[in-house]
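Hey,

Quick one before I head out. I ran the complex with tetrahydrodeoxyuridine overnight. Inputs first:
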Amino acid sequence: MSLKTAARQARDNAHAPYSGFAVGAAILTDKGNVYAGCNVENVAYPEGTCAEAGAIAAMVAAGERVIAEAYVIAESPKPVPPCGGCRQKLAEFAAGDVPVTMATISGLAETVTVADLLPGAFTADHMETP
Ligand code: THU
């Protein structure tokens, strides 16, 4: 299944009664498998989770760790970029040159890289003892 189809299908299952903003995300791994997620909101608003986080959790639960490509889709006038927290979550499992496509239901799409989204990322290197 394509990333676009997987993300769209996951978006159809989004639980977003508070924002009304349904998001779908899909990830292609280095092994060629696709994992998808949607946003899951909560009446205690800060407890909601983003679509990207759901897709990443599904990937990790399946035993995979390497993102080769990511795709995010929402109904919006312009492509929706991952939030700050999701940029860091993507960077945990994706190299800087990994493409992230941000798409709209109406057909707009823009592709950037993980490094574009999170320049100067905090990494494990920063925790090395001098
Ligand atoms: N949201 C995502 O799932 N991914 C993004 O990249 C941006 C925002 C969700 C979080 C919340 O459920 C809703 O969109 C509105 O912020």
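The beta strands are 23-29, 34-38, 67-74, 99-104, 109-113.

Talk tomorrow,
K.
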